[in-house]
Amino acid sequence: MTEIAQALEVLGFTLRSGFAGGADTAFELGTTREDLREIFAPWRGFGANPNSKWDKPRWDQIRRHERLTGKPFRPAKQLLLAGEYIGKAEILAARYHRLWNTLPRSFQQLHSRNMGQVLGARLDTPARFVICWTEDGEDSGGTGQAIRTADDLGICVLNLHDLEVRAEILRVLGIALGPATSASPSECAGGAGAGSVRYCSGNIVDDGADLLVNTNNVVSVAGAGVALAFKKRFPEIMPDYVGACRSRRLKPGGCLLFPLPDGRRWAALATKDHWRDPSQLSWVESGLRELATLARAAGIRSIALPAPGCGNGGLDFRTVEPLVLDILSGFDLRIYARSTRAA
What we know:
Blueprint: H1 2-10, E1 15-18, H2 23-28, E2 37-40, H3 56-69, E3 78-79, H4 84-95, H5 105-119, E4 129-132, H6 143-153, E5 156-159, H7 163-173, E6 197-199, E7 211-216, H8 225-233, H9 238-246, E8 255-259, E9 265-270, H10 281-297, E10 302-306, H11 317-327, E11 332-336
């Protein structure tokens, strides 16, 4: 995502984005010209406080970028919708959000901010195209608001979740990524350099990593082990998990990312079908590969995970551990298990 922004800036395109962590910030990190970036905030100060837990993911990305490049990064100036355009943006946002009247006021402001990203500060300059990434390739999450708006207005949407779309964008822009980052649309991601591995004891839900991994079945039962620990610590996450199971978005061998209450993310890694069944090694492997792709795309650097498929799943960590270390190489890993490499 960062390299795409750099290439577009060279071609003279104006970047519109937001101040959220993940793809928004990765795109912003590819820009330097203030006259070619319009970064919209829902309210003054959003994304600007490195000490705020809500803004921390964004600033972690910025700090990693500065370490990689060896240069300080100057964030863009905040652009706010003003005057009559605030009300007009809210009317538009309500039109494109299915549950507008149920949203908290802060969420409504975030979605209204998206109207500026698609249509400009006066809502009269539609973007030529929208480059985005969603976890399922659909109009989901906060990004879905911008996608639905663009679709309705006939603006081309290029979702980097689609590997063919991603490859064509990189080809047209002349971007060649190495094998460590070829699967990722985000610059600030695991795989961009050597990661670290630490074996931990204790409760994984207490870990401060960017991403916490929860190993699951796909019948929405969280009755034991790591899944139960997540359910007890973060009861707010259960509707996302249950909904993904019931809609069959989460399948054995798959992985999905969801938000945690503190702004970080958690991953549902499906190593089982029914909770009574044993885990399958092939599902662990495919799930880890999907996890790596999603984590890179989301700008994740550190991952805390259990021994996937082991314990209640019945797999031997001596078989699973090499998969974890190979597939997730490049991330900073906190593995809640005892290493078998010296055994």
